[in-house]
Amino acid sequence: MFDVRSVKFVLCAAMIAGLALSWRLWVSLHRLYPRIPVDGLPLFNPRLEAIAYVLLIASFAVAAFVRRPAIFLGVAVIVIALFVAGDQSRLQPWVFEYASLLFVISFGSEGAMSTCRLIVTAIYFWSGVQKINVTFLHTTWPDFAAGLIQRVPQLRPAGIAVPIVECAVGICLLARRSRRPAIIAAVLLHGVVLASLILTGENSVVWPWNAGMALLVVMLFWRSSEPASQIIMNRRFRLHALFAILFVVMPAFSFAGWWDAYASSALYSGDIAQAVVYVDSPLIARFPGSMREYIWQQSEPMFLDINRWSYGELNVPAYPEPRVLWRIGQEVCSDYARAVNAMVRIFYRPDWRTGKRESEIRMCGR
User: Fold this and answer.
1) Phi-psi category of residue 203: left, alpha or beta, with phi > 0 → left and psi -120 to 50 → alpha
2) DSSP 8-state symbol, 248
3) Residue 242's beta-bridge partner residues?
4) What is the C-alpha separation between 188 and 310, in angstroms, rounded?
5) How far is residue 235 CA from its own chain's centroid?
6) CA-CA distance, 259 to 261, in Å (whole number)?
7) Residue 279 forms beta bridges with which residues?
8) What is d(CA 2, CA 113) in angstroms, rounded to the nearest whole number?
9) Per residue of the chain (366 residues), what is the pLDDT tens digit?
10) Whose CA is closest to 212, among 2, 4, 8?
11) Cα(337)–Cα(277) distance, integer angstroms
């Protein structure tokens, strides 16, 4: 029987792996990609961040093995909250999910396990809903699964099944009769995702996330006889309603722009905002050499791809909220492109039926 301690161990191990693979996101010494703190907060001292990063990993490592991890997990979650306040790009989907699950599991009760089950089912469901759009089908899926599609071309149209399977997994995990088939489907889905990522060598930071999710869904549900009503209306954990709101209710507001996409399981959905900084040829010389590889120079218009830059330097995607992307663009303008012929362009979330995006441009020199 998988208990609270085994779930805690997997969560801590996956979190440590993610933190290690994205260390430049957390340790900002010599980092070029801008930190974007919550409005009104100053930038934290990079040396203090480096110390906090070591403390964070140590807290998770100790919590993974001790019988009473509440203090260590509490410290770790507080440190993560401070890190995110100092740079919103750190609120990656796996960070939000694991920090929430670890906070819940720190209470060490069976009621907390029920809340973890609800969180996981909600993540699968909303991840599927976020992918119900033409951009995922025609752009995101072919790019994401390129390595597999090259070997098995018949997988190209399989993108249409991904959101259906994810939504079905989320719903079927709740019902006892459909629980085990849903677990098998979830594990197979994570296997396909891992294979795609490993074949292309991309986004290694979510490799442990996918492995961890495959283990978690087995540990939380395989031997569970808990009925759906008890998972949804859990009265044994005092904070259950809070996490039900965060993971079940709030993602619906992301479609109106009232809740962040990455807090709504929108990774690899295609339904997120993007940004570029347009520059001309003379301006490119002002950029550090390590940044120039992320500037498209094959044809006009030339532009710095903020998402590629984030992947290249931090090993995570850019945080896809316009409030963050505008400020990153402004930092680039201020540091390297103070000219009227440079501009920041935000492409807002695409129409789910047509894939068309509205965009907005702001000049650097104004």
Assistant:
1) left
2) I
3) none
4) 29
5) 29
6) 7
7) 302
8) 11
9) 578 899 999 999 999 999 999 999 999 998 999 999 999 899 999 999 999 999 999 999 999 999 899 999 999 999 999 999 999 999 999 999 999 999 999 987 789 999 999 999 999 999 999 999 999 999 999 988 888 888 888 888 889 999 999 999 999 999 999 999 999 999 999 999 998 888 888 889 999 999 999 999 999 999 999 999 999 999 899 999 999 999 999 999 999 999 999 999 999 999 999 999 998 888 888 889 889 999 988 877 889 999 999 999 999 999 999 999 999 999 999 888 776 678 999 999 999 999 999 999 998 866
10) 8
11) 9
Give the span between the Cα atoms of 332 and 338, in whole angstroms. 9
Cα distances from 229 to residues 114, 122, 152, 164, 233, in angstroms, run 11, 14, 41, 23, 6
| pTM for the predicted model, two decimal places | 0.94
Strand order in the sheet with 295-296: 295-296, 302-305, 274-279, 343-347, 359-363
Q: H-type helices in 66-109, by residue range?
A: 70-86, 93-105
Q: List all residues 6 or more positions away from 328 whose beta carbon is below 8 Å from its beta carbon.
A: 33, 34, 36, 275, 306, 318
What's the rounded Cα separation, in Å, for the pair 33 and 21?
Answer: 16
325-330 long-range Cβ contacts below 8 angstroms, 24+ apart: 325/273, 325/274, 325/275, 326/275, 326/362, 327/34, 327/36, 328/33, 328/34, 328/36, 328/275, 329/275, 329/277, 329/362
Helices (H) and strands (E) in the chain, counts: 18, 5
Handedness of CA 322, 328, 329, 334 (dihedral sign): positive
CB 331 within 8 A of CB 308: no
For 365, the token pair is 């020199």
CB atoms closer than 10 angstroms to residue 184:
14
DSSP assignment, residue 296?
Answer: E
Tokens 């809740």 belong to 259
